[in-house]
Amino acid sequence: MLATVLGTVAGLGLVTLPAGPAGAAAAACTWQKSVWDLPAGSDQGTIDAYAGERWAIGVSGNRPWLGGGLSNPHATLWDNGKVALRLDGDVPHLRDVNASGLIVGDTVVNDEFVAVTVDHDGTTHTLPGDPAWDGYDAWAVNDRGDIVGWGGTDLKPQIVVWPASAPATYRVLPAPGVMHIQDMDNQGRIIAQGTYNVGSVVWDTDGQWRELESGGAPYAIRDGRVVGSPDSVNTVAEWTARGALVRTIGDGAISAMAIGGNGTVGGNRFVGSQRHAVLWRDGVVSDPLTTVAAGFALQGLSNDEKTLVGIEAKRPTEYRCS
């Protein structure tokens, strides 16, 4: 079966952010906690993707007896913290969701992965692919409706884009090798984490891939800005859409996970020996999130930068600015 791949398009450079008191406004927040609902019979959950407003997807299930992942796991869709869909079987897998609630992922047909979109009632719609492929999958979708995934064979994996502007069609992008697709911004730029054979890359809007300067693992891209973890301990980084390193942030930083609509970066860092969520702006802490519990692991930041989404006590949880 084909290994997971990545690819697509990245941007023209680091976007100039509007001046303003975004950091000061964030620092003035008192963050109020809300624990998301879980389906009946579940006691734990994870978040795999957050669309920046109402929709999020992940997995709900039960506490495992001997550690490891969830037992009885099922793909789950949340709408403003309420369960909107929980799938009954192992497939389809839910990989990403956009601001309109369009879900993408894969199902299994004749022992092969097939890329699909998924309705809120669980109905799947197959995306087109090449019959010669061993299988194919959809891994990310942007708010425009563009979808990116992989297709091909074990010997020749390829990055595949299903453009919103041309429904029922796809195109194949050049790729350096087997990769893990991580994110796509609303202009169609794509980031992927490298595997054993290549470093992490970004695809610009010219359709060409470029490796991230100084290496590392990208987690999010927005308007041509890439954030993630470089190849160094307790540091996060920002790159341009052409892969050029803009800055690194130390001071105990662990991960940069998301970029808000005003350019604030959300992530996690060590404060002493404890892990804390944090917001950065232009490379410095704009809000230390002192009213957010130390056990909260930030995974998403809303478009208006007033909602933090993550996991706390093994439950999907949000904090809202008040």
Describe the model.
The chain is mostly beta strands. 2% of the residues lie in helices and 50% in strands. It contains one helix and 28 strands. The protein has a four-stranded antiparallel sheet, with no helix packed on it. It is globular, with a radius of gyration of 19 Å. It starts with 21 loop residues before the first helix and ends with a strand. The model is unreliable at 1-26 (pLDDT under 50).
Q: What is the straight-line distance between the termini?
A: 48 Å
Percentage of residues in strands:
over 45%
Helicity level, as a percent range? under 10%
- Name the structural class: mainly beta
User: How do the SSEs run, as a string of H and E?
Assistant: HEEEEEEEEEEEEEEEEEEEEEEEEEEEE
- Mass-distribution shape: globular
Low-confidence stretches: 1-26
- Overall radius of gyration: 19 Å
Number of helices: 1
Summed up, what is this model?
By secondary structure, the chain is mostly beta strands. Helices cover 2% and strands 50% of the residues.
Secondary structure elements and their pairing?
Elements: H1 22-27, E1 31-35, E2 44-50, E3 55-62, E4 71-79, E5 82-86, E6 93-97, E7 103-109, E8 112-118, E9 124-126, E10 135-141, E11 147-153, E12 156-162, E13 171-173, E14 179-184, E15 190-194, E16 201-203, E17 209-211, E18 217-222, E19 225-229, E20 236-239, E21 245-249, E22 253-259, E23 265-271, E24 274-281, E25 284-287, E26 297-301, E27 307-312, E28 315-321
Antiparallel strand pairs: 1-28, 2-3, 3-4, 4-5, 6-7, 7-8, 8-9, 10-11, 11-12, 12-13, 14-15, 15-16, 16-17, 18-19, 19-20, 20-21, 22-23, 23-24, 24-25, 26-27, 27-28
